[in-house]
């Protein structure tokens, strides 16, 4: 396509191979990309107006895939294959998550009163959801905060997948770290739903656990947004979902996950803005009767635990494959039988000083007395081993 080729070196990771073919280094025909972008926006607008905002996992990933194809318009076709390879397993996990929530609904009896008592204790005797609906809910009029709450609630379904898709297109090295934490957080939430089903405020109100009525308001502002047709799609998705999966709140968890992930990567003056989204999501799930305060706090706790645990595993892995300084030192030195110290096997200097030989011991020879290339060397003599990797060029397009 356009006479350009994608170069990949065997032995390199897929992300490193893609860095070789930087998007900015490929001359893409501007007209093709503009035409593809316009067609994508028109198609997405038609989807929202006629069939509703996408909330189904397969539909969302269909639009993400179409967006990636439009972004890569005019580039080698093998980039589309890389998208399928990288995102196929992710899609399988998330589809399994959707269906597992429905299975969890048919398990243990849901916990109801525990969250109510906890919220009353935290709020001084009255549920925050009841207080918010008493002060902000007007059954005769849809206010701007109702519209905002519905928009924020809907953003949960596309925010994290959309950010992941952008990272795949622009920052592949960050995409892998993002994906590991996202999937771990998702699986941890599903596991909790299976062992600890918990009912939200609207469910507790319907089944008579609350003395006052709680209205479910998450879809109230869709009409004002012109998304009336979203309701049937959302109802179909709710049929597969678990109505007693309130603990933890993944709405609160995913929004905080985005803020925590990008916190060290943005300038300090912009960092407070990162938390505007999780705070807006907190107001939304409480006001709309979808979650309790303890559900939100649990979701935030899951985020912190996810970053801590995945970070530990990543550092352990990097150490063992030799990415860190300690890992490189471990791989570049070996212990020889009969010698009391590690000896350097490569010419690269490690940050941790390790003597190559004992000055108080006479030099020893190996059994043959010969080293690399036939030279006589002692056991304590540093030996530089050069490993050459064969490079293969793959041309596609």
Structural class: mainly alpha
Q: Percent range for helical residues? A: 55-70%
The count of DSSP E runs of length 2 or more, i.e. the number of strands, is 2
Rough shape? globular
Task: Determine the number of helices (DSSP H or I, runs of at least 4 residues).
Answer: 16
Query: Largest sheet, described in full?
Result: 2 strands, antiparallel
- Give me the strand/helix succession: HHHHHHHHHHHHHHHHEE
Strand arrangement in the largest pleated sheet: 1-2
Extract low-pLDDT stretches.
Answer: 1-28, 346-359, 365-375, 383-397
In total, how many domains does the architecture comprise? 1
Give a brief description:
With 397 residues, the chain is mainly α. It has 16 helices and two strands.
Task: Give me some keywords for this one.
397 residues; mainly alpha; two-stranded antiparallel sheet; 16 helices; 2 strands; disordered C terminus
């Amino acid at each position: 396509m356009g006479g350009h080729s994608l170069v990949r070196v065997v032995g390199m990771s897929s992300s490193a191979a893609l860095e070789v073919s930087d998007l900015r280094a490929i001359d893409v025909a501007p007209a093709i990309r503009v035409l593809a972008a316009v067609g994508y926006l028109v198609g997405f607008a038609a989807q929202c107006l006629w069939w509703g905002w996408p909330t189904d996992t397969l539909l969302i990933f269909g639009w993400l895939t179409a967006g990636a194809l439009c972004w890569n318009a005019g580039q080698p076709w093998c980039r589309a294959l890389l998208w399928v390879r990288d995102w196929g397993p992710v899609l399988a996990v998330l589809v399994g998550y959707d269906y597992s929530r429905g299975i969890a609904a048919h398990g243990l009896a849901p916990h109801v009163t525990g969250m109510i008592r906890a919220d009353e204790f935290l709020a001084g005797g009255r549920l925050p959801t009841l207080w918010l609906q008493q002060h902000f809910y007007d059954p005769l009029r849809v206010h701007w905060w109702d519209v905002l709450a519905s928009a924020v609630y809907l953003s949960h379904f596309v925010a994290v997948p959309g950010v992941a898709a952008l990272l795949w297109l622009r920052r592949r090295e960050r995409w892998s770290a993002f994906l590991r934490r996202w999937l771990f957080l998702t699986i941890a939430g599903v596991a909790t739903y299976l062992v600890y089903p918990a009912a939200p405020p609207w469910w507790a109100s319907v089944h008579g656990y609350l003395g006052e009525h709680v209205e479910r308001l998450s879809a109230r502002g869709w009409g004002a947004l012109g998304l009336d047709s979203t309701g049937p799609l959302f109802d179909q998705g709710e049929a597969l979902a678990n109505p007693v999966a309130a603990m933890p709140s993944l709405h609160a968890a995913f929004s905080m996950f985005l803020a925590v992930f990008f916190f060290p990567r943005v300038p300090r003056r912009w960092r407070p803005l990162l938390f505007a989204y999780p705070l807006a999501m907190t107001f939304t799930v409480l006001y709309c009767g979808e979650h309790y305060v303890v559900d939100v706090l649990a979701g935030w706790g899951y985020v912190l635990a996810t970053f801590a645990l995945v970070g530990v595993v990543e550092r352990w892995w990097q150490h063992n494959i030799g990415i860190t300084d300690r890992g490189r030192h471990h791989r570049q030195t070996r212990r020889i039988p009969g010698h009391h110290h590690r000896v350097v096997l490569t010419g690269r200097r490690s940050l941790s000083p390790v003597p190559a030989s004992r000055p108080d011991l006479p030099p020893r020879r190996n059994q043959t007395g010969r080293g690399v290339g036939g030279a006589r060397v002692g056991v304590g003599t540093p030996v530089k081993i050069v490993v050459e990797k064969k490079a293969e060029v793959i041309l596609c397009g």
